[in-house]
Amino acid sequence: MERSLHFIEHIIEEDLTQDYKRDQLRFRFPPEPNGYLHIGHVKAICLNFNLGQRYNAPVNLRFDDTNPAKEEQQFVDAIKENIQWLGYQWDSECYASDYFQQLYEWAEKLITEGKAYVDSQNSDTIAEQKGTPTKPGVNSPYRNRSVEENLELFAQMKAGKHNEGAHVLRAKIDMASPNMLLRDPVMYRVLYKTHHRTGDDWCIYPMYDWTHGQSDYIEQVSHSLCSLEFKPHRDLYDWFLDALMPLKKLRPKQREFARMNLSYTVTSKRKLSELIEDGHVTGWDDPRMPTIAGLRRRGYTARSLRNFVDAAGVAKRENVIDMSLLEHSVREDLNAIAPRVMGVLDPIKLTLTNYPEDKTELLEGEVNPEQPEKGKRSFPFSKHLYIEREDFKETANRKFFRLTLDKEVRLKNAYIIKGESVVKDAQGNITEILCTYDPESKSGSGTESSQRKVKGTLHWVTQKEALKVQVRLYDRLFNVPSPDQDKEKDFKAFVNPNSLQEISAFVEPGLSEAKKGDLFQFQRLGYFVLDQDSTAQQLVFNKTVGLRDTWEKQNQ
Fold first, then answer.
1. Which of 429, 350, 430, 347 is closest to 388 using CA atoms?
2. Among 13, 23, 54, 250, whose CB has the most other CB atoms within 10 angstroms?
């Protein structure tokens, strides 16, 4: 059954009956290379590239590289890698800096036509003169400079003859407009910073609102899709295009959609940068970060992110998507593809007193029950094992279905065991559990005892052959759903101090052959990924997500 169209698709379908032909459709994704892409960008990426696929239309990747003070080549490279990892490929790789000369010439055209002027006031004065939403602005005393003087000053700005802040170029629109963005917006400022692509060729740089529509026009983008905060900018987008008319080619349209807001998360690149600078996380790819690089390192798959965006939908109004929906999408995808293994995170020794001391046998378990064609994996079993400390209680009520004294449980893919006694240290802490096993109860052996039902099943590893690994247990980075909504507090006050716990654990020896980025389900524990920090001497696993959503229950 084909899904219904979302509202952006309805807009495009309507435009195809009036303004555009199908072969004129072109979309674009326009990141600013001043940080890493985050979960909000995933929505914009999927929206544009999926529209490209639906309409068999090209999609440009255009970097809005107009602020060399904050932009770096490393961000360009990371953005390209992230988009490809998500499964998309752009048609043309474009840069706003490719159009600097054309934008400059068009700015001169506006000056010549009396639609732009050089203002020699400082930024504070200009901001004050703009008025308020209920009070009209005041014209700049430089608003009526002659065309000749404006052209000369603008050329001097380009030639580097004026200091930063001495002059700006402003569009001459309407200082009384109810849309404050139309109150003579700044088009150019002087900025002596080396650009990562153009070097020191330019010392004036165009503002985004001036660059946006003109870049779309140059590339012949049909639909310039922006998040809702840009809706007031649409009037300015159209004003600049009108001011350059008559333009003979296809005229682009700006249309807006609600951005991705996720609970327990901030997505402002400025705020994400603060988290790094203040040491709350280790970098843009920290697995607690909502960046694509961080989510990828956490073990989130490209397909799970695409499925999440699809499930969240394309909305007209701002809303907040619960983090549990994202985690559900990850869990669903990993359940289908992740190999099953056993790992013990908080080990306690368990000894089978009636198992031969010198015996080791290989047992088998499924690689993935969702993929029976993957077959079986083998792992060693012997007298001395580790189990999870929480899976044993010396005394327990009838609702405790794990191991206790005088009760039986099954070791997964192995034997039924019975708790007999414990060994304690001088402080009374249990250091070892002594059990007996039923040698006829081996899983899959076909014996009558192997079919015997017990209520509990525990995961385990052998003491001798198990691999000792480092495990990073991640929790949500913030401990409130909306960390940046309280205007009275710094959002960093809500950082979860327990968002990372590093422990030593034991896993099946077969994981010694795992490669960085490999994903696994640690049975009964959750999903884990082998981190890039791993070495041959020390494997490091990041917890991706639990087997079920326990966060809300824990934090009610």
1. 347
2. 250
**Sequence spans of domains, the chain:** 7-259, 269-339+469-554, 348-459
pLDDT tens for each residue of 451-477: 888 999 999 999 999 999 999 999 999
Per residue in 536-545, is it b (16+ CB within 10 Å) or e — as a string? eeebbbbbbb
Exposure of 48 in the CB half-sphere (CA atoms within 13 A) = 31
412 assigned to active site: no
Asked if 36 and 78 count as a contact pair (C-beta separation under 8 A), the reply is yes
pLDDT tens-place string over residues 120-138: 999 999 999 999 999 999 9
Tokens of residue 249, six digits: 């080619």
Amino acid 555: pLDDT: 44
Q: Which of 43, 234, 253, 259 is catalytic?
A: 259
Contact 477, 288 (CB under 8 A): yes
Class of domain 348-459: mainly beta
pLDDT greater than 70 at residue 151: yes
DSSP 8-state assignment for residue 529: E
Q: H-type helices in 291-431, by residue range?
A: 292-298, 302-312, 323-337
Contact between residue 320 and residue 262 where contact means Cβ atoms under 8 Å apart: yes
**Does this model's pTM top 0.85?**
yes
Q: Which fold has domain 7-259?
A: Rossmann fold (3.40.50)
Residue 89: burial class (beta carbons within 10 Å; 0-12, 13-18, 19+):
exposed
3-state secondary structure of 208: helix
Identical fold for domains 269-339+469-554 and 348-459, yes or no, is: yes
Backbone angles phi, psi at 471, to 5 degrees: -125, 135
List 62, 145, 189, 269, catalytic entry: 269
- Residue 349 known to be catalytic: no
164 labelled catalytic: no
* Catalytic hit among 9, 32, 420, 432: 32
Q: How far apart are CA 236 and CA 195, in angstroms?
A: 26
- Please check whether residue 383 is in contact with residue 357, taking contact to mean a CB–CB distance below 8 angstroms: yes
What residues contact 247, with CB distance under 8 A and at least 6 apart?
A: 217, 241
CATH 2.40.240.10, applies to 269-339+469-554 = yes
Read off the pLDDT of residues 180-225 as tens digits, 9 standing for 90 and up.
999 999 999 999 999 999 999 999 999 999 999 999 999 999 999 9
Q: Give the phi and the psi of residue 394 in degrees, each rounded to 5.
A: -65, -40
With beta carbons less than 8 A apart as the criterion, state whether 127 and 66 touch.
no
